[in-house]
Amino acid sequence: MGAWPGLIRAYHDYLDVPDEHVVTLHEGNTPLIPVPGVAERVGRAVKVYVKFDGMNPTGSFKDRGMTMAISKAKQDGSKAVICASTGNTSAAAAAYATRAGMKCYVLIPDGKIALGKLSQAMMHGATVLQVHGNFDDALKLVIKISREHPVTLVNSINPHRIQGQKTVAFEVIEQLGGKAPDYHFLPVGNAGNITAHWMGYTEWHKLGRVESRPKMMGFQAAGAAPIVLGHPVEHPETIATAIRIGNPASWKQAEAARDESGGTIDMVTDEEIIAAYQHLAGREGVFCEPASAASVAGLFKYADKLGLSGGETIVCTLTGHGLKDPDRAIAVSPQPTKVQATEEAVLAAMELTE
Amino acid sequence: MGAWPGLIRAYHDYLDVPDEHVVTLHEGNTPLIPVPGVAERVGRAVKVYVKFDGMNPTGSFKDRGMTMAISKAKQDGSKAVICASTGNTSAAAAAYATRAGMKCYVLIPDGKIALGKLSQAMMHGATVLQVHGNFDDALKLVIKISREHPVTLVNSINPHRIQGQKTVAFEVIEQLGGKAPDYHFLPVGNAGNITAHWMGYTEWHKLGRVESRPKMMGFQAAGAAPIVLGHPVEHPETIATAIRIGNPASWKQAEAARDESGGTIDMVTDEEIIAAYQHLAGREGVFCEPASAASVAGLFKYADKLGLSGGETIVCTLTGHGLKDPDRAIAVSPQPTKVQATEEAVLAAMELTE
User: Fold this and answer.
1) Which of B96, B42, B95 is nearest to B310 (CA)?
2) How far is B351 from B354, CA to CA, in rounded Å?
3) Which of B133, B282, B338 lies nearest to residue A125, judging by beta carbons?
4) Where do runs of H (alpha helix) occur along A80-134?
5) B55 closest CB neighbour out of A2, A57, A339
């Protein structure tokens, strides 16, 4: 096999970017990893996989959309980009913008930004502005500024973002040997990703590249569940900072994906999210960020409600890597034991029983 | 294309593990990313790529060796594994061990463990023992304990580790279209990785799968450079914690790789490492951990000493992801600016000049 060229070049028939304008960090091509412990808990001989999109270059699925958004901005001659972000978007925007030789401005809400994400925007040379307000305040500002000034908006309302993100569905179909899963679970925050997944499945279904499409099962955090509640949430609260959003940009499209697929958008509590997060790391060996685990938490919640006949294939998207939020991991785990550097001390702490 | 099956199954002709014992997180298959800004600084029309091994599942190259070590331990019926680690090995050992249903004990040296790495071992359910001593003290302890108790040593002196790690050379050859680079730069800490790279290149060269082998260019941190100095360093000190090792386990093999390839093992200062780290993130969009940047720092140092004739192909291995050590990234970057959530305040902070 040759080198994976990044998703725009890999799927050039489905993404409209001239080769000379492609800005890539060779994103995409993320692994589809079986999670037998999850499957066992669901029962009924289901096959469950995680699509670990945290294994993109900046550690989240945002790279899929950002390679498109920045390539298009480059094609259009843009010299600067701007976004509002709870962290992952800013990391991706900063990385791709600097690779393209563009300036990047990121507006982050006050407080509760995961450490890893903040470090990325800073290292990639973005101008990071921490605004005294929440994500939705920051989003309103960047929309207005991008309309009035020569700076390209790269939030998920940038239409190119969704085009790049749809490739996750292409990859899942290929990784399953040309089939779609029966169910696709994923976290819902700003709702661009569920929209994009459905767009990808639908595009290949229309072209006859796949026979069926999955039911789309989206999960919001209980403290930030505007779509479930049917109204915006003014002060969203959840430990899953990546989906702490009160008024999703792609609200209507997410509802359409749910309805067209015969799926569901529901919510899971922070406790359910943390339990799934710990199961994935502690049993399957897969360390995702807390928000990502909303997908698996949703599967655990719905296992008995799906009416499974047995043997179904289920995919859960994990949107970000656990290294994005090391503080949370440390907070929910047992702390290291300090011992003297002697064999006796170490053996005692190991509690080895032979 | 189908799903990447992890490196043991992808390279099963070169790795001796029966399929039923394979423990995998679908590691390997990491991207080879052009770094045009590095190439420009080197000049002479060279092509420079980074092999971004930080894009393995636990965020470092250690996954390559650990899929082998844990699979072999499983084949042998082992129920527990142990390692000493400055962080990356413990993260990989904990992830693969828990996936295999094994217990994992990790001994980490006192202090200076990067936050991300520590969070991983903890989340993956390892028993983490912080010993009052340095890496070399911890290594001596785990070697002794593994000899006397039913627990498998998975440090890089475990011979299976190097076997897994050699696949990085196979991937580079394939990604370059069947050719080896002219030079391969990489960081040197415990020296297992330079040994493994050379083993991989040599194995395929002997089989006729590639016509040439690269000169191996290894770089230690100046405060932890035992191979360069010719004697162990009792108190190694460097900001590049992943290579803060005073008495490398694979010392002799590293010297053999250097001598057989006609390469060099030298050192770079912490300042040179940080400069390369910032260049990679700030210009190329690639965020690696500090130790990884020793490879590119070495290339910058040697650019004028290599006697390049022009057009050479150079690969630099980046061993770990920048998210492994967010504190370091934040420490070396400009801090975010706090602003009110008004258009006027944001525009002023952006310093937009039209």
Assistant:
1) B42
2) 10
3) B282
4) 88-99, 115-123
5) A57
